[in-house]
Structures are given as C-alpha cells and as structure tokens.
Design brief:
There is one protein chain. This protein is elongated. Helix 7 packs parallel to helix 13, helix 8 runs antiparallel to helix 13 and helix 18 packs antiparallel against helix 19. The C terminus is likely disordered. The protein is of the alpha+beta class and 809 residues long. It has 20 helices and 27 strands. The strands form five sheets. A six-stranded mixed sheet has the order 1-3-2-6-5-4, with helices on both faces.
Length: 809
C-alpha cells in the first residue's frame, strides 16, 4: 500500500549521521500540539526523550543562539539561509510546531506558518508533524493526531512518540516500505511520501498519506523531518474501486477474447448454442441464458440454461407477440434492457402474464444481427433486480455481436453440409440390393474439408441370370460439379450393366458416355461381374486400383487386373477382362484411392496397410446375428484418417461369395451375349465347362460346349440383336445316383427361323443344325412373344453309389 513514488533528495554530506529507522512523517504517530506558537497560552506539547540507538549515539548540536530573528555569533550566512528555508518549509502546518528543547538543536520558537495556509489545511483536514531525528521524538498537531485516532490520549499505551512505536501502528505490509523510504530521505536529506494503513483504537482500518522533508542543522546533518499528513481512506477507496474496475475490465476483455475464440471454433449451430449457454460472464453472472433463431417469422430455441424445458416449449417454433421485448429487439435491432419486474410490467403489460410466473427479475434481450439482417435473439436474465451500467451493457452487446456472427456462419455450414449430404445420398445408392449367394457391405466417408462431397461412388447391380455387378469409381474433383458428373456416370454404367453387356463393353460404353458429356473431367473405375453360381469374377479396370481378395485362410493380397485408360480420355479405348475365381467364404474388396493414398502415405504403403487390415481373424462386435462382413468393413474404414484430416472422400465395397447352398453350385447359368461381341462366345464356353464340372456332369462337357457354340453363333450371325444363353441341369429325383438332364437354350429377338440344309463337301457353313440333330438327345425351336428360343438337351448316365463323383475334385 505504501506505493507513492519516493522523491529524491540531496546527497548526505560525509560524516553526517544516517538517522534512526523512522516512521513515516505524517503517519499520525505524532505528539499532540495545539496550533499556537511555542510557549503560547493554551498550547500543550507532548514530547518523549528518545532511547533509540540513533538518538543516543548522535552528536549533540550547539546551543540555540537566542531569538529567532538574531544571527548567532559565529553562524555563517549559509546557515542562516537554511534557517529561513526551515521557516518556509511546507511542513510547518497549523500555525506553529511545538518547541522541543534539544541539546544543541536550533529551536523554532520564532517560526510560524503563513496565515493563509492554516485555513486551507483546516478546510482539507490536513495535519502537520515534526520529527526530531536526534531525540527520536515525533510530534503533530491536533488534526494529525485525530487522523491517527490519538487525539484523546488514544493509542492504548502502544504509542510513546518514538519512531519505533509509530511503525508498530502500521499495517505489517506497509511498515517496511515506510521505514525504507524515510531512511533514504534521512540519508539523502531529501523528501519522501507514501500511503500506509493503520488501525485506530476503535478498530477501524484507515488509510493515511504523508509527505515529509528532512531538514539539516547548522552542520549539514539530518536534524528534523517536517511534513503533512491527511486521511486518504476515501481516496484509497476510490483507487481500490478503480483497481477493481480495471481488473474487472481486464477480466471482461479476456472473456471477450476467450468467447470469440470458442465461438470461432464452433462449427455447427448446436456447437454455438452449447458455447453460448456455458459462457461465464465476469462480474455479471446470469441466472438464465437462451439462444433463439428466427426462421420464417418464428422463433426456434437453439439452447437454454437456467430454464426448465416446459418453460421453453411455449416459445419454441412460435410467433412472438409484437409487444414482446424480444420482438422489439428484433425489429429495432437494438438491445432491450429491463431492470426489474415492475419495469417489465409497466413497459410490456400485454405479455407480462406469461413471464410473471418465472423467477426472473431483470432481463437483457440482445438481437443477433449478421449482414444487416436480424437472425435471432439472445436472452440474459437475472434473479435479482439489476440496473446494468454502461460497461455491462457494452459487454452484453459485444457478446451478442460475436454470437450473431458465429451463428450465421454455423447456419451456413449446416445448410451446406445438409446440401452436400442430401446430394451425396441422391447420387449414391440408397440401399444395396440383396443377391442370393453373395453378401455385400459398403461404406462412404466424406472428405474433411470443403463441402464434404466428391466424385467417389460405389454400386451393386443385379444382372441377368442371377449374377451381380460391382462398381467402384472416382470422378476427378471434389465439388458439386464432380458429384453431378458422378451421378450421371453411375446411372449410365448401371444401365449398361443391367442390360447384360459384358464387362469390357460396359466400360467402353461408359467411357464414350463421359466423353460425350464434354465436361473436361475424367473418371477412374473398376467393374467386376461375379458369377454367383460358381464364384468366377470377370473384372475390368479403367485407371483405377486393383481389387484386393481375402482368401479362405484369412490372408489378403492384391489381385492384378489388366488396366486401361480412365473413362472419358479415349472414347474408343478397348478394355481387357481379367478372370479370377473365389472359393466359398472368400471376399473381394474394391475401394477408391482416398483409403490408401495421401500426402503422407504413398500408394504402395497404403495398399500394404489395406491388405494387413483385411487379413486376420474377424472379431464381431455386433449383436447376435450380425454379419462379420460388416465388422470387416468397419475395421478397414477405421484405417482412414480422421474426418478433420481426411483430404479425399472414400468409397469402399466388399463382396463375399457365400457359395452354393449345401455346398453344390446353383445348377443354372444365364449369360447375355452382345451382337457385336464375338469374343463373348469363348467366355460363355469356358463358363459352361466350369459349370458342368461343378454340377457333376463332366462327361457332357465336350458335347454341350460344341452344340452351345453352334446355337450361339447361329443366333449372333443370322440376327441383328443380342442373344441370351441359358443352361439348366435337371436331376432325377429318384434317390442318389439318379440320372440328370442338361437343357441349353439360346433366345434372340429375331422372327427368322433357322433352316436345316444339306451342305456340300466344300461348304463352309450349314452343318450346325446337323450336328445338333446328330448329337443331342432332343432339340427344337420355340416361338416367343418377340423372337424365338432354340434349345437342345443332353442326358447324363446314372452314377453308381460306390463310384466317386467325376465332377468333384
């Protein structure tokens, strides 16, 4: 508390005593002297001989020279100047100081305070003091004693007019400061001053301020300190209040910074509501907080604290009455402050009834204005009457502005996110179709930045013959344009595949379709057709990643697939098909590059990590009956970066071939063969061979392959439409080892029926139907609604019970 800057004095002359550790002059530890001159009637003087070491060891000064106006014998003019300086010192207050008979010290019996100074000091309650440094006697006038509570013999015996007893009256924190300043002033013959606290006999803590000046004797040694003392309690209280206000302003400034930081980090409207309802207002603790948005003329409560849910239900999604203070704040875009319940009742009687039951007594309605438009209102309420001052109103208004900007930004984010999520839901399949014989699982993870929408997609397409097509792709870009192109390309590719076109034709047509859109975008894609009858996969790749296969033993490896250019780059590109097979329980995975590649991870590292996450035992964490494939999909997706760090969106598709029921392949094969796709005939022959071996009638392979090739070739060459190939095996129901009958059908949409001819020896055609008639157990042509169906049948001999099945192995 003793914190006033210390004035500097002159240097102490060599050999001059340092003086005792004195109390602060003006500190009220003074003797009681009425304001008359020394020795005047009615003047009392209190003095105490000092017993301090400083007093006992200080050299004695010469005896006084007589009257104050005479020049003593042997005194120099400089000493006379010092005497006049003493006479004119500002410490000579309240008329005169009481004379102190001190051995060798010049007396002040003739000194007096100017007449004009006494009324000013009396009017301002300023007392004076005089400290005899040599004798360690501290004296003061009546006002100085009154300031310290010593005017009626107070002090409780603690004060004996010495500097030590004076310091004992001070606050323990202030006494050392006062001591150091006074000692320095005595040593330098300078000035000092400070605030300090003291406890008067009544127990009251007072604040006192003093200003003192050290005077030298005729020999240039510190002799006396004189000065002023006054009650600074009110002044100090003002300073304390100013300090408290400064601290409060600092806290509020820090609060605004922290609130701005927290609101800037709020992403969604829910985040803004949470931050607002948890804000601690410094010096202004609210009892209730409500954040509401204005939507289509109605108020929607976003968050509240200090209110019961039923109290907010009446206002949520309702139209505010025009006379409501919140409506007034929204209309005028100015805060509305209500200090008491009486003021609320007087200003808004129409709506007082709905508020009177709530335990609130003061309110502040803050409009939320962003871009010149009112988007909502904040309510800050208090249980007690509260008249907010200018600083508090400014704080709340500033807070309202921060909340408005954050809420506007969060609403825009939510709208964009909803738009992106809705667009992505439309572009991607709503559900994955269920296909007997296989189980699928899909995942889509949006990018962590921007609109969180991109060009990645997946699709599962049921194909003719009970087969299934798998599609995974990625359109260049991560914006709405890329998503729109992705949606068009997905639909086109799905249509091509559903028509029964082979994988190479599906990919080639999709590439031409994207090139015809003229969007300056390209896309990568992998399309795989899975024969669910016996687990054969026909895959084609257009600049995309290779599939990854998880084998039955739990291992996983990349399955190489012949690649081609991305879609849309070369419309006439021809894509090669890669064939591989799955055993029952094995899984094929297709994904986009966001899962395996980033700025911090190259493609090879990412593919290796993907294989490790796909391999190993799968532990199901789902409820009973859950499919382990979903757990495997979750495990693979968890390898992706967190949403905030994800640079690209991710599409993931897993298919597990469950195998035929009972361990036997489904005994039907259906394939569509394009009219211009002659290479497809060889693929159908290979599939028929595999199917017959799986069905256990390997002895029919050669004949069935030859006759099927003849029927398919005939349909392709002599019509201008596609052909549908179907092979079915019918078994004799009479027990194990019974016979079986194979029926092969080829359908086309041409009304031209085949004609059997008798070719010559040099003819290059015309023998197909002859072969069918010669080798088949039965054949024929049947009309359809549009087109015809040609068929043949072959019979398989019964198998002895003890003989091994030739179709197994």
């Amino acid at each position: 508390m003793a914190n006033e800057p210390e004035p500097q004095g002159s240097a102490l002359p060599p050999g001059a005593p340092a003086g005792p550790a004195s109390g602060n002059a003006g500190a009220g530890t003074v003797g009681h002297a009425n304001g008359g001159p020394a020795g005047a009637p009615g003047t009392t003087t209190t003095r105490t001989a000092s017993t301090s070491p400083a007093a006992s060891t200080a050299p004695a000064a010469p005896a006084p020279a007589g009257a104050s106006g005479a020049l003593p014998a042997g005194r120099t003019p400089a000493q006379v100047v010092r005497r006049h300086a003493l006479r004119a010192a500002p410490g000579l207050a309240t008329g005169r100081l009481a004379p102190v008979a001190s051995g060798g010290l010049p007396t002040t019996s003739g000194d007096s305070t100017p007449d004009w100074l006494e009324p000013a000091m009396a009017a301002n309650g300023i007392g004076s003091f005089d400290w005899d440094i040599r004798r360690d006697v501290l004296e003061g006038d009546q006002r100085a004693c009154a300031i310290l509570g010593l005017n009626k013999g107070g002090g409780g015996g603690r004060f004996d007019h010495t500097s030590g007893s004076f310091l004992a009256l001070l606050h323990p924190e202030d006494a050392p400061v006062v001591r150091r300043r006074v000692e320095r002033a005595v040593a330098e013959l300078g000035q000092c001053g400070a605030y300090y606290r003291t406890v008067v006999p009544s127990g009251e803590l007072r604040a006192v301020r003093f200003r003192g000046r050290v005077l030298a004797d005729a020999f240039g040694r510190a002799s006396r300190m004189v000065g002023f003392v006054w009650d600074a309690t009110v002044e100090l209280h003002k300073r304390d209040r100013a300090d408290r206000m400064a601290l409060l302003r600092e806290e509020r400034s820090r609060f605004i910074k922290e609130a701005a930081r927290a609101l800037s980090e709020a992403v969604t409207v829910t985040d803004v509501a949470r931050v607002f309802t948890e804000l601690p207002l410094p010096g202004l603790p609210p009892d209730g907080l409500v954040l509401a948005a204005q939507e289509a003329g109605r108020v929607r409560i976003l968050g509240a604290s200090g209110y019961q849910p039923h109290e907010m239900e009446a206002y949520d999604r309702s139209v505010l009455p025009p006379a409501h203070p919140a409506a007034e704040a929204l209309r005028g875009r100015m805060p509305v402050f209500i200090a008491s319940r009486e003021e609320y009742r007087e200003r808004y009687p129409e709506v007082w009834g709905s508020v009177s039951a709530m335990p609130r007594s003061a309110w502040a309605f803050l409009p939320l204005v962003a871009s010149g438009r009112a988007i909502g209102v904040c309510l800050v309420s208090f249980d007690d009457d509260r008249e907010l001052d200018a600083d508090e109103r400014t704080l709340l208004s500033t807070l309202g502005g921060l909340v408005a900007q954050s809420l506007a930004r969060a609403r825009l984010h939510d709208a964009e996110h909803e738009l992106a999520a809705g667009l992505q839901r439309v572009m991607l399949p709503r559900t994955v179709p269920s296909v007997p014989g296989v189980t699928t699982a899909v995942r889509y993870l949006a990018a962590g930045s921007g609109l969180q929408i991109g060009g990645d997609w997946y699709d599962v397409v049921p194909l003719p013959g009970g087969h299934v097509g798998l599609v995974i792709g990625d359109v260049q870009g991560h914006d709405v344009h890329a998503a729109g192109i992705m949606g068009q390309l997905r639909i086109a590719l799905r249509a091509y595949a559903a028509e029964g076109h082979p994988p190479a034709a599906v990919m080639a047509r999709a590439s031409r379709f994207l090139a015809d859109l003229d969007t300056d975008h390209f896309a990568t894609c992998t399309y795989a057709e899975v024969n669910v009858d016996y687990g054969v996969v026909y895959a084609v790749r257009a600049g995309h990643l290779d599939p990854v296969v998880r084998r039955a033993d739990g291992s996983a490896a990349v399955q190489p697939v012949a690649g081609g250019l991305p879609l849309g780059i070369a419309p006439d590109e021809e894509y090669r098909v890669t064939r591989f097979s799955l055993d029952p329980g094995e899984t094929v995975l297709l994904c986009t590059d966001g899962l395996v590649e980033s700025r911090t991870m190259d493609l090879d590292t990412g593919m290796g990590r993907l294989c490790r996450s796909l391999s190993g035992e799968v532990h199901s964490h789902r409820e009973a009956g859950g499919d382990p494939l979903e757990d495997l999909a979750d495990r693979v997706a968890s390898q992706a970066a967190d949403a905030g760090e994800r640079e690209d969106d991710i599409a993931l598709l897993l298919l597990r071939w469950d195998g035929p029921a009972g361990g036997l392949a489904a005994q039907q094969l259906r394939r569509r063969i394009g009219q211009a796709d002659l290479a497809r005939i060889a693929e159908v022959r290979a599939e028929l061979r595999d199917a017959l071996r799986r069905w256990g009638v390997a002895e029919l392979v050669d004949t069935a392959e030859l006759l099927a090739s003849e029927l398919v070739t005939n349909a392709i060459r002599h019509t201008d439409r596609d052909a549908m190939f179907t092979a079915r095996l019918y078994r004799d129901p009479d027990g194990e080892g019974g016979g079986a009958r194979l029926r092969v059908e080829v359908e086309d949409e041409s009304d031209l029926w085949p004609t059997r001819r008798t070719p010559g020896e040099q003819a290059s055609s015309g023998r197909g139907l002859m072969l069918v008639e010669a080798l088949a157990d039965g054949w024929g042509v049947e009309p359809r609604g549009s087109g015809k169906r040609m068929w043949f049948e072959l019979s398989a001999a019964p198998v002895a019970a003890e003989s091994p099945n030739p179709g197994r192995g």
